[in-house]
Amino acid sequence: MSLCCGVECVVIIGFARWVWKRCAHISGNDSANWTLVAPGEFEPIPRMCRLVLAVYETDLHNPQFSPQHGYRLNPDWVIKRVTYEQTQGRAPPYLIYTDHEHKEIVLAVRGLNLYKESDYKTLLDNRLGMQMFDGGFVHHGLLKSAVWLLNAEGETLKRLWEESGKEYGMVFAGHSLGSGVVSLLTVIVANHRDKLGGVPREKIRCYAMAPARCMSLNLAVKYADVIHSVILQDDFLPRTATPLEDVFKSIFWLVFLCPCHCRGYLCLSSCIQILTLVNLVEWVTNYYLLNQVLVLCTACPACCFWFV
Q1: C-alpha–C-alpha distance, residues 15 and 275, integer Å
Q2: Which of 69, 118, 174, 218 has the highest count of CB atoms within 10 angstroms of its CB?
Q3: Distance of CA 114 to the CA centre of its chain
Q4: Taking 90 as the threshold, does the pLDDT of residue 227 lie above it?
């Protein structure tokens, strides 16, 4: 009897310690050993953030949600702005912008709209191991959205790149849901560059803010040179396990039924989750904004362990 009580006490103490460490884990722990990024490498990120934010505006000549120093873009350089009505829910709203100052053609996609059922349908259109692509696994719903976006705007992007003398870079930027769409769009374009007129891989870039998980680890490593994710401090989204449907199930179990079942979705060891190829992760090149100090982790699969 005393032995059983002793074992039970050890288990309880051990579990309490594990819960405390898990709950006390902060963003500073993730990047404690990372190096500071060069200012020149970070320079495009604020621009991409402003462009993604500009997608939310209905009229860029008379903006309603302008950041403190404005969008710093020329509204006359906006080639196209597409709304939910035009996409019919097959992709989030987006805009195409030709940045002649920085010689870039940018496709920026907005984030999740909590009032749009179509966005939830895109997120929940996935199951573990449902969609294979390029030797790995990707999010089925986000891939469908990316394919639709490429079919809809491929000719426009190709024309703009050829009109620029094939000198401009091709940049895809997105936030939250949009980050998943543009990242998979980047993967497709990197494999089928002829669809955009043969744009070289070194001219392709993707910037994903608050990245959603959409590809398996082997693909994250493979495309780390073109896809860059930006994480702000303790942002929960990059740490949320996929598929997102499992998170909703976990919350249901947590509140109404069995906390122990919830642990299987939310509290598993990162190492256990990352070992399976079909689990989806964000990207391996990560820019981590921490108390206004930027750190960088490049092509280091180990860093993904912290984000599961």
Answers
A1: 23
A2: 174
A3: 17
A4: yes
In a domain, residue 153? The reply is yes
214: domain CATH number? 3.40.50.1820
The answer to whether the beta carbons of residues 181 and 164 sit under 8 Å apart is no
Q: What percent of the chain has pLDDT over 90?
A: 42
5 confidence band (pLDDT: 50, 70, 90): confident
Q: How many CA atoms lie within 13 A of 220 on its CB side?
A: 31
Q: Does 261 reside within a domain?
A: no
Helix (H, G, I), strand (E, B) or coil at 64: coil
Burial (CB < 10 A; 0-12, 13-18, 19+), residue 206, is buried
- Which pLDDT score is estimated for 30? 63
Q: Where are the beta strands (DSSP E) in 104-220?
A: 104-109, 131-133, 136-138, 169-175, 204-209, 215-216
- Which tokens is 6 given? 């002793």
Q: For residue 75, tell me if it sits in a domain.
A: yes
- Exposure string (b/e) for 46-78, b if CB count within 10 Å is 16 or more? ebbbbbbbbbebeebeebeeeeeeebebeeeeb
State the amino acid at position 170 in one-letter form: M
Q: Does the residue 1 lie in any domain?
A: no
Which amino acid, residue 139?
A: H
Find the domain containing 88 and state its range.
32-239+280-307
Angstrom distance (rounded) from CA 7 to CA 11: 6
* Better pLDDT: 224 or 239: 224
Query: What's the number of domains the chain is made of?
Result: 1
Return the pLDDT at 236.
Answer: 63
Full-model pTM:
0.75
